[in-house]
Amino acid sequence: DSGVTQTPKHLITATGQRVTLRCSPRSGDLSVYWYQQSLDQGLQFLIQYYNGEERAKGNILERFSAQQFPDLHSELNLSSLELGDSALYFCASSVASGSPLHFGNGTRLTVT
Amino acid sequence: GIQVEQSPPDLILQEGANSTLRCNFSDSVNNLQWFHQNPWGQLINLFYIPSGTKQNGRLSATTVATERYSLLYISSSQTTDSGVYFCAVPLNTNAGKSTFGDGTTLTVKP
Lengths: 112, 110
Prior knowledge:
The complex is a heterodimer.
Chain A: E1 5-7, E2 10-13, E3 19-24, E4 31-38, E5 42-50, E6 53-57, E7 64-68, E8 74-78, E9 87-94, E10 102-103, E11 107-111
Parallel strand pairs in A: 2-11
Antiparallel strand pairs in A: 1-3, 3-8, 4-5, 4-9, 5-6, 7-8, 9-10, 9-11
Chain B: E1 4-7, E2 10-14, E3 19-25, E4 33-37, E5 43-48, E6 52-56, E7 59-64, E8 69-74, E9 83-90, E10 98-100, E11 104-109
Parallel strand pairs in B: 2-11
Antiparallel strand pairs in B: 1-3, 3-8, 4-5, 4-9, 6-7, 7-8, 9-10, 9-11
């Protein structure tokens, strides 16, 4: 058990809808990262937060947004969903930038 | 940005065999991680190894930072070792975001 909790485990929704994925980092970790893993793209970095502030941005679509709350949990919001958004979404946490990443079990999103 | 290449892309072993997986990276890094993604999709942290050698049971890893590669050794493989093995390196030291290689898919047959 990595200590990183992601909910829900599975999500099935229709095109055009909006969903929210939730992540609770390991106790003591201030950094939260979101990654997308789709069949044809591998593991792609989306965004990083550190202690509530956005720290780095990767290949995150404008339809996607995230935030980290004062209790350090994070949410990834995906809107106007398309079939191509179907993927496994991982959250990871670390004590600080450059420290080892610890991944949650992921949320499997299926857009129909 | 930094490029990460893993080899081989696929590996099929008989239970009990040994294997070596390789990760090459295009620029100097100050940390590197190896992960195992099991058939259920979970990403398990194996090693955090910016340099040197570490061992954990049947698995060990060596990173030679000056030559920009890392090796993951699996000895006496078991069917539970099947899955995809990824190495990841940070894109830059300030941000902490990591680039993942495309992975090596390992299948261990009984």
